[in-house]
């Protein structure tokens, strides 16, 4: 069975319902001009990445998984947008218990690199049923 990620994403978005702001037509045109561009979408994604990192690291510190010194080791990677995107992706794919490995991993992360998949290769996602 082929996994159709686009159809799953579409279903999830449809399930959420309408996400348009509740404003008048004239205000909607102005919002579309401001919010519809790529610059705003990049800004918005960076804000999401910052929130993911903030919540993950706060949980890890509160749970005693990482220390203040560990946070300082990670700081350089968090200073740029691409670094935040890389770290946030790692955090989404791991538990807070894995945070003790972060200082070493972040030092080796570098930049995100796209996968070079063969045309007929299966997706790199495994669904776990309970």
Account of the protein in words:
The protein is mainly α and 130 residues long. α3 crosses α5 (81-92) and α4 runs parallel beside α6 (102-109). The longest helix has 25 residues, at 38-62. The protein has 6 helices and no strands.
Concise structural overview:
The protein is an all-alpha fold and 130 residues long. The protein is 61% helix and 0% strand.
Sequence of secondary-structure elements: HHHHHH
Query: Helix content range of the residues, please?
Result: 55-70%
Our measurement of the CA-to-CA distance between the termini, rounded to an integer number of angstroms, reads 18 Å
By DSSP, the count of extended strands is 0
Number of helices in the DSSP assignment: 6
Low-confidence stretches: none
Q: Helices, strands, pairings?
A:
Layout: H1 5-16, H2 25-35, H3 38-62, H4 68-78, H5 81-92, H6 102-109
Which labels suit this protein?
130 residues, mainly alpha, 6 helices, 61% helix, 0% strand
